[in-house]
Amino acid sequence: MVNAIGPETFTYLELAKTIRRALGLNRPIIPVPPELGYWTCRMIGLFVRDVVITRQEIRGLMEGRLYVDAAPLGTTRLTAWIDQHRATLGRFYTNEIARRADRFSEYRSN
């Protein structure tokens, strides 16, 4: 297994707070039970015709797999990337299922 991380690593909650702070937002971060989050995202997925998150991904986040204690392989700091893309971050949705069918078009989001 390769831990493909940059020079910064975050827990899921730290990541959400970092993005919120970098974008100057003051929205609450509300924990929800995994099943509620899964089914809410399933419903959203019906509207956007995508798989927003899987149970396995939720389990991985709950197990802390977003955070790793390893040497970074990447060089881009997420906080610097967020600063660079602040004006457009979160403005567009990129459908991952559609991206699998079309590997040549650019991502519309950031």
Task: Write structural notes for this entry.
The structure is a single chain. This protein has 110 residues and is mainly α. It has one domain (12-101). The chain contains 5 helices and no strands. It is globular, with a radius of gyration of 15 Å.
Keywords:
mainly alpha, 110 residues
Can you give me a brief rundown of this structure?
With 110 residues, the chain is an all-alpha fold. Helix content is 43%, strand content 0%.
Number of strands: 0
Residue stretches low in confidence (pLDDT < 50, at least 5 long) are none
Task: Compute the average pLDDT.
Answer: 86
Pattern of helices and strands: HHHHH
Helix-strand category: mainly alpha
| Count of individual domains | 1
Query: Mind telling me the C-alpha Rg?
Result: 15 Å
How helix-rich are the residues, as a percent range? 40-55%
Name the overall outline.
globular
Span between N and C termini? 27 Å
Largest sheet: none
Blueprint (SSEs and pairs):
Layout: H1 12-22, H2 34-48, H3 55-62, H4 78-84, H5 96-101
